[in-house]
Amino acid sequence: MVKGTGKEFMEKTKYKYLDKSDQVKGLPHPPLALPPVKDKPVHRLPDPREAPRRAVDLWDAINNRVSVRAYSEEQLSLKELSYLLWCTQGVKEATDRPATLRTVPSAGARHCFETYVLVNRVEGLKRGLYRFLATEHSI
């Protein structure tokens, strides 16, 4: 009997086939975040709770979602950028483990990726590529 691709995938990706994780091996956590680049300025972002928000029903948000190909020339405010970055990797809490509980999931709270933003029109910022420093809520 031939197994379907989905069933085969589910079988071959079971935990029993994986090496032990660093966490299971008792290895120390990686650093909570990479440090800022030496000699590069760090810009503290406003508190993301200060950004203007509006309540929206989940059904309406999903139903009204559309792709946009023509973008506004209007600048984002620094508060809006702060809120958007908090939504992508924001730190809700730092624990004693040490770990950070963020707005996005990560197995073992290890958050092994970085967020970069290409700024073209944000009030008060020069155009350029910025790295989000989530634990400091800075770029």
Structure write-up:
This protein is an alpha+beta fold. The chain has one domain. The protein has 3 helices and 4 strands. The chain has helices at 5-12, 58-63, 78-89; strands spanning 91-95, 99-102, 116-119, 128-131. The chain is extended, with a radius of gyration of 20 Å. The mean pLDDT is 89.
Chain-wise SSE layout:
Blueprint: H1 5-12, H2 58-63, H3 78-89, E1 91-95, E2 99-102, E3 116-119, E4 128-131
Antiparallel strand pairs: 1-2, 3-4
Report Rg. Answer: 20 Å
Q: What letter string, H or E per element, gives the SSE order? A: HHHEEEE
Proportion in helices: 10-25%
Shape: extended
Q: Main β-sheet: number of strands, strand sense, barrel status? A: 2 strands, antiparallel
Major sheet strand order:
1-2
Unreliable stretches (pLDDT < 50, length at least 5) are none
Question: How many structural domains in the coordinates?
Answer: 1
Overall residue-averaged pLDDT value: 89
Strand content: 5-15%
Number of helices: 3
Alpha-beta classification: alpha+beta
